Amino acid sequence: MSRAADAPRTRATRGSSEFRIGFLVHDVSRLRQTVFDQAMKPHGVTRAQWWALAQLTRHDPAGGMTQAELARVLGLGKVAAGAMVARLEAAGLVSRRPDASDRRLNRVYLTARGGRVLDRMIAVGRELNETLLRGLPREDVEAADRVLTALRSRLGARLRGEDL
Question: How far is it, in rounded angstroms, from Cα 5 to Cα 141?
């Protein structure tokens, strides 16, 4: 008997969907980021910059974010996030202002120039999505959206220690 036949049926194997889903999601995300990087390069925006700008507006577009909050969503340490914010500020994309309720904290806000860059990012993202999704049946795109949304929700619940 072969080793494959000896393997427990519950274990994910090389060609199985269980095994591939994580790799496929990662690969699609990584490749999309690389294509997006290429599209943003002529605008002088790096991946780190566009990712930070996107997170700033995604989490609290009106009220800004503290540097600590931004560090958390970017997966950076406080020092690295501080350096990132300093580079964004030097590029005129964000400004730092003291928090209204706690002057020890700085909040990071998008500037008008940062808003223009964000508008360009949105346009590039739309163009990229149109190209990537062209020719795919609407039902497939909707199914992929439902599955990925459910996976994201389940992973978030697991991180919060909730039962799945």
Answer: 36
Residue 118 · residue 110 · CB < 8 Å? yes
Is the distance from CB of 84 to CB of 48 less than 8 angstroms?
yes
Distance CA 68, CA 82 (A): 9
Contact 37, 47 (CB under 8 A): yes
| Secondary structure class of 158 (helix, strand, coil) | helix
- Report which DSSP code applies to 95: E
91 close to 45: Cβ distance less than 8 angstroms: no
**pLDDT tens figures, 7-63:** 555 555 555 666 688 899 999 999 999 999 999 999 888 888 888 999 988 876 677
pTM: 0.75
Distance CA 146, CA 140 (A): 10
Full set of structural domains in the chain with CATH: 44-111 (1.10.10.10)
Which two structure tokens, joined as six digits, stand for 46?
Answer: 């790096």
- Residue 60 in tokens: 């609290």
Of the chain, the end-to-end C-alpha distance in Å amounts to 37
